[in-house]
Amino acid sequence: MTVAARVANSVWWLASLPEARRFARAMTKVEATQRAVLARLLRANAGTAYGRRYGFAEISTAEEYQARVPLVTYDDLRPEIDRMAAGTPNLLVPGLPSSFVPTSGSTAATKLIPYTSALRAEFQAGIAAWIADMFRTYPALQGGPAYWSISPATWKQRTTSGGIPIGFDDDTAYLHPLIARLLGHAMAVPPVVARIRDMDAFRYVTLACLLRTRELRFISVWNPTFLTLLLEPLAVWAEPLVRDLADGTLTPPGDITSETLATIRAGLTPDRRRAREVEQAHMEPASLWPHLALISCWTAAAATGPARTLAHLFPHVPIAGKGLLATEGIVSLPFYGLPGSALAVRAHYFEFLPQDGGKVRFAWQLDEGAQYRVVLTTGGGLYRYQLGDVVSVVGHAGTCPLVEFMGRVNAVTDFYGEKLHEAHVARAIEAVAAEAGMAIAFTLLAPEGETRVTHYTLFIASDVPVDADRLALFRQRLDRALCDNIHYAYCRELGQLDAVNVCVLSIPPSQAHTYLLHAAIRTGIRVGEAKPVYLDRDTTWRARLTKIAMDDSSK
Fold this sequence. Notes:
Elements: H1 2-26, H2 30-45, H3 49-53, H4 62-68, H5 74-85, E1 99-104, E2 110-115, H6 117-137, E3 146-148, E4 158-159, E5 165-166, H7 177-183, H8 199-212, E6 218-220, H9 224-231, H10 238-247, H11 258-265, H12 272-280, H13 285-288, E7 294-297, H14 304-313, E8 319-321, E9 332-333, E10 341-343, E11 349-354, E12 361-362, E13 371-377, E14 385-397, E15 400-408, E16 412-413, E17 420-421, H15 422-436, E18 442-448, E19 455-461, H16 468-482, H17 486-493, E20 501-504, H18 509-521, H19 541-553
Parallel strand pairs: 3-6, 6-7, 7-8, 19-20
Antiparallel strand pairs: 1-2, 4-5, 9-10, 10-15, 11-12, 11-13, 13-14, 14-15, 16-17, 18-19
Helix pairs in contact: 1-6, 9-14, 9-18, 10-12, 15-16
């Protein structure tokens, strides 16, 4: 596999270089690039029902586009999306989407985002620039296989009422089909593993494949917790994993179809030498893959803590952020050595709503240090679409904004006017935990009360005992930090809210993270893409998390 992986990676790198050069030039002329992207999108979609409604064919400038086409949310476009899903063509895009991709929503549990060939090409443009920079910065990555996130089929692949597929299983769906096929020779875990619905069987088979791949060079996941939870059963399954590796067998726990099992087993051969090496490594992740050169995952906002936990498992491996890539579009690209991530100015057309109010800004009008809400126009039929993500501008490369993800716009709890925002909550928890010298691997702030919300509780879980005195100090400082929000402070002064409480869970952090992942995937979200959160408005978290502990203690 190693030779085939080297060839595949080299071809991918070479194929990505032309787009990387185009992006490098675009970073020096953002305004011209963005105006050209908008003109292309308007031409391509002028004949759609939406394009005719707003006169795309007559719009010649970004200023006209801003004046004639309204800002929208998913709910505004939902009637057209529902009709497209039922089979009506030419509404938001020419013809019909090739598929719909599910993602979480605020008013609806799951949103279906149209996925088209034009949108795929836009993703490919951004990904190619990132891949070229990644291989340039970490040339060792070309030397062996990679693990690209594959999510288990925890919900059945299905179609809309119009027969259009919903969802796809792994990251390669964003790539050109030829590149995706080529990368099949460089993947440590075969895509067929995504067919496994049972979580234990999925984890076992994935680990078995990874342990066979001594030359593993790169791991790409979305949520860092996905990887830490994947690795957690290594010690428990050490004996059967080593035995399977030595004998060329596969004996996963849980349910797995005979067809899927036979397909995976067909590529296995005994490897006693690797089995001895794995056994001598005592299932320590840092020792299992000596050539691992990079791990890519979310590292910002609520993923900061989980990414730090992952870094402890792999102390000698760089953990690199992914930039901001949403189901709806690719917002920013991680360019190594630069602060933040570069706005994907060749992929989509961008506008920005200042967090402190004011008129909509173009991509070439952003101020360093300011925060903005992202507005997208894409080849997937989203026009002036309010993504719901907040970014901070941390610098510029040429004229290209460098941004950092801060959180979600709708990640706000507001019962009495306190307006707690997840981005502020995240900063407060991180700062206060550092001051108190507390290592907390799981945190979730949520409202509580018997008949009405009376206070917020921070639920925490740690792998080490929590000192009572430090906990009391932590609680006091956290309440003061939350009071930096004048709205929260006013509610505290009026007695509408009591001081924040802290609840130490009697379960390990991994179990709490697992529960959040399972709650997300029940809505149809791929498990690898379920986002970590610091703040939730649900008032039932104590009962839900306590039940986990009770169920665990009864086993």
